[in-house]
Write a structure and sequence with these properties.
The structure is a homodimer. By secondary structure, chain A is an alpha/beta fold. Chain A has 16 helices and 14 strands.
Chain lengths: ~500, ~500
């Protein structure tokens, strides 16, 4: 099975809309069925949130967005989809009725994935004519940002269906956690349920308000759990003696009379009121939409931090970006148009690039130019492999002119002209443009080829020299850049 | 009560050492008693971790580190301390014995704070002669980074003791959560206990391994809990209908047969083995020290993200930094030594500043020089307040010479010479040195004073002009920098 082209989503509530957004932004066409009149509008809002978040999250460009089509029935939505995602209310009979309709029209090799957060796949598939392709794929809100998806097969689910589901969710940037033994509520929701139950007791008994409980989480162990789970965190609490030491100390506490968990708080009108009122007091100053934006901003930044630190969910993001980058092809050197400066950078000015003056800060200009130099090096053959085995170019001198401002969120690109290239020397001139064509800045760089073992100047490989000379010869015919060879202050 | 000067910490395990590190780095002298011979060495390691983390976390400088003194008894350690923190094993009799000794020697107005994670303060203070000053201050590992501290008073604790404890922990960058009703295990550990119990069941029944459970947390809801807690997250899951809608949907699930929580897993040798072995398989490739560094790096970056986004624990960090900034003094302009270039930067080359060539990447050089320019601006009076009301200097031209390499972890500093300063112009020449004295790079900048409303060139305030001219006049007598006014390629 190759990369999927289309998906159906049955039910467009919070979870269904999250799936739709993630799929669409990954270039997959999505057919949706939801009987509610408000569904299209709600879906649009979630897609907008997702688009906003991805713009901040991802360095590479996403593929062209898929098309979104609302259909009038489950059968019509399912007809040509490679995967059918069911996200209807948590009632077995409702779900089974959906599968019946899906099976009538779906392609024979399409996967049917339930978003249920608790019902066993064996029960879900009980009345299906081809139960082997039914799998639970349980995601977490917001589906377009949180990588986790729990995959659970039922007794009749085929290995192939599980493998295909893994591949499909990985492809769209998610982290599949295959749960090998069926259990109601799977893993994450069992943990969440236990906390939820305890938290309700605390509110019920007036030990703490909803806000105090939330603060006990997010100022403390919540910060640990975003990166390590329960066991790895406790491993650290045991000090160098590790897990065995910790568990032998902490284990017995389980039998302490520390918890109400042996009992279930009764769900009285009074308790519902108490929780709702406390929650209003805690968060009521923000609309849900504002809270969603805040949550997404934080999630985006956490994921970027984890990517930078090569840890946990950041690894999933890194692999996703690598896949996106791989599909980006570099033009063959022989086919490059050398009658103009070469395109060496396309990027967006991210929020975190701003300085206290409210525009792109000066060191980010050099970061852009540095990336343009790296791309220029890759064009002439100094790529990752070359750097690890032969050498690299080091910048020895830089001159930057700032000509115009660029604001956060705007797009820029760079072009590069080779001024001189021979032997160990590479003299570059970069132009940084706003997408509207304004020249923002220029940078002139002298680079020297260096042997990374001796850290001394050295001659590049024949291939690199030939390419450098080839570009240099062509670029000599171009107009000499304005500001070339200028010293700081010449103009002032 | 004014800012505290000294603290005693009784017991220097993981939690005690964390307290020690946080206090010391906040400029507070700490007297420690711990009978273990290894204590000083373990404490040193934690202080080193904390120092490393704070360097990355905090923008302002911390006050001069407090002094650390190990004492030979509880009484000696407690003698002159403003607060005595008890962090000994979780046995009531052991803790009560400590308080007896503390009360013999402590100052009458000193607070006594227990780090217990579960014992009621009313029980802790039962045999004390001045029980009003006993309070529970329950922190979370790593104490030097996680802001949460649960404050719980017993039946005899005074309001004054609670208020003083709040003030003291806030002063050292923590978030006090005052729990108004005594309950065993307080809030956070009750929630943790419930998850821990459920997780052990999952391992016990072979539903999931420790690694799978950790992944179910950190790829999913853990990312939510680092910023919002349980209730605020669920408020979002209810969509615009909010908490009441969510809870009326989700509430009934509590009565589903979803959990083993009605029972307690028996703590057999077999279960201990299983958990320890799975944990080794999951995390055994890292030493505890490596995991601690990774955890701290992630925590530091999460806290920075939250500060940037003005949310949750980031607000605590922001307030902490604001307090530190207020106490930081800049040398009076009149007292500056203008017979040499001015010191404008002292920093360390951080890990994330490396490029693929294994040394500080070129854009970080400009970041250093940019910070040096910012400091130079602040010296002549262009500080935050000036920028928000009058204007700022924008860099219009830059020339950088790279003369030597600098590796990760090494320290550098910058000095700045004013080449010319008059009217709207400010012409600077920065030197970046390795701490061993090697000149690493130079940067020449032309800056123009700009009115931030019109975004056009403008004349600075009289104070700024006077100072700029004053430095310029003095610096004219200095040697003209080598490489001044040079264009890229002049030398090559």
């Amino acid at each position: 099975m190759t990369r999927i082209k289309s998906a159906a989503v049955i039910g467009a509530g919070v979870i269904g809309s999250g799936w739709i957004a993630r799929l669409l932004l990954n270039g997959i066409d999505v057919y949706v069925y939801d009987p509610s009149e408000e569904a299209p509008q709600n879906v649009d809002k979630v897609i907008e949130n997702a688009g906003r978040a991805y713009k901040k999250l991802l360095t590479p460009d996403l593929p062209k967005r898929g098309s979104l089509v609302f259909k009038n029935s489950v059968a019509e939505a399912s007809k040509s989809a490679d995967i059918i995602i069911e996200a209807v209310p948590e009632r077995l009979s409702v779900k089974q009725a959906v599968y019946k309709e899906v099976e009538h029209s779906a392609k024979s090799n399409a996967i049917i994935a339930s978003s249920t957060s608790g019902i066993l796949p064996t029960e879900l598939q009980a009345e299906m004519s081809s139960p082997d392709r039914l799998i639970v794929a349980h995601p977490f809100n917001p589906v377009y940002l949180l990588p986790l998806v729990e995959l659970v097969g039922g007794s009749k689910t085929s290995t192939k269906a599980i493998e295909n589901a893994k591949r499909i969710v990985t492809e769209i940037g998610m982290f599949p956690l295959h749960i090998k033994k069926e259990i109601p509520a799977f893993i994450a929701d069992r943990l969440l349920e236990s906390v939820w139950r305890e938290a309700l007791w605390l509110v019920n008994d007036d030990i703490a308000t909803t806000e105090e409980i939330d603060n006990a989480i997010r100022y403390g162990f919540g910060l640990r759990w975003a990166q390590m789970g329960l066991f790895e965190t406790y491993r650290l609490a045991g000090g160098e003696a590790g897990m065995r030491h910790f568990i032998s100390q902490f284990g017995p506490c389980l039998e302490w009379p520390w918890t109400h968990l042996m009992d279930v708080p009764e769900f009285t009108e009074e308790l519902v009121d108490k929780v709702s009122n406390q929650s209003d007091e805690q968060s009521g100053q923000f609309s849900i939409h504002e809270l969603e934006k805040k949550r997404d901003d934080n999630l985006v930044d956490f994921l970027k931090v984890l990517k930078e630190n090569r840890w946990g969910a950041g690894n999933t993001l890194k692999e996703f970006e690598d896949r996106l980058n791989k599909t980006k092809k570099r033009t063959d050197f022989a086919k490059l148009d050398l009658t103009a400066p070469l395109l060496t950078l396309k990027t967006k000015v991210l929020k975190e690039w701003a300085d206290y003056n409210g525009h792109m800060t000066e060191s980010r200009y050099l970061e852009c130019f540095s990336e343009a130099s790296t791309e220029m090096m890759a064009i002439v053959g100094v790529d990752e492999e070359y750097i690890s085995s032969i050498g690299s170019y080091f910048t020895v001198e830089t001159h930057i002119r700032h000509l115009d401002e660029v604001l956060i969120g705007e797009r820029v690109y760079a072009t590069t002209q080779v001024i001189h290239g021979a032997g160990k020397k590479l003299h570059l001139f970069h132009y940084l443009y706003h997408n509207d064509g304004r020249l923002l800045a220029t940078a002139e760089h002298m680079l020297i080829h260096v042997n990374l073992e001796t850290r001394g100047a050295s001659i590049p490989s024949d291939l690199v020299i030939n390419r450098v000379e080839c570009v240099h010869e062509a670029h000599q015919k171009l107009k000499k850049p304005e500001g070339l060879a200028r010293a700081v202050g010449d103009k002032y």
